[in-house]
Amino acid sequence: MLLISCPNCGSRDETEFHYGGQAHVPYPENPNDMNDREWAEFLFYRDNTKGTFAERWLHSTGCRQWFNMLRDTVTYDIQAVYPMGTPRPDAAVRDAAAPATPDSGTASTAPDSTTTGSAAPSTSATSISPTSTASSTTQSGTTAPEGATK
């Protein structure tokens, strides 16, 4: 789960936000002069970058304001959050200027985190015991309750 820092409301859970696509896509100067292919490319063709990518986000359940985010599409690390209309920050200058803050928006890597996929419910306290002596034995040698199929 991402923790996104809204420029107006502060850090919030990612479920409060909606993704708005690639940031910094300039609107054509004369859209009426464009042919169908050029217009379709403006509307639908976007970069699909692996790594640092500038995105637009909407805080839909909070302040309802749009903002831009610089995020790594591989690690989900949020590198910068900045207002609409502001130029994209240079990642190299940002990394040298300030280290990432604790609520910079990275996925949890804790052992019990659902994002790592390493957590599993404990089954040590549960057991299936036969309810009667008429239980069947499976090929692995364990017993199954009466009525269970092999």
Tell me what the structure shows.
The chain has 150 residues and is α+β, with helices and mostly antiparallel strands. The chain contains 2 helices and 8 strands. It has helices at 36-44, 91-97; strands spanning 3-6, 10-13, 18-22, 52-58, 66-72, 78-83, 136-137, 143-144. The strands form 3 sheets. The chain has a 4-stranded antiparallel sheet with strand order 3-4-5-6, covered by helices on one side. Strands 1-2 form a two-stranded antiparallel sheet. β5 (66-72) and β6 form a beta hairpin. It is extended, with a radius of gyration of 26 Å.
What is the terminal separation in angstroms? 40 Å
The secondary-structure class comes to alpha+beta
Mean pLDDT: 76
The number of helical segments is 2
Q: Helical proportion? A: 10-25%
Strand order of the largest sheet: 3-4-5-6
Order of helices and strands: EEEHEEEHEE
Short description:
By secondary structure, the protein is an alpha+beta fold. It has helices at 36-44, 91-97; strands at 3-6, 10-13, 18-22, 52-58, 66-72, 78-83, 136-137, 143-144. A hairpin with a 7-residue loop joins strand 4 and strand 5.
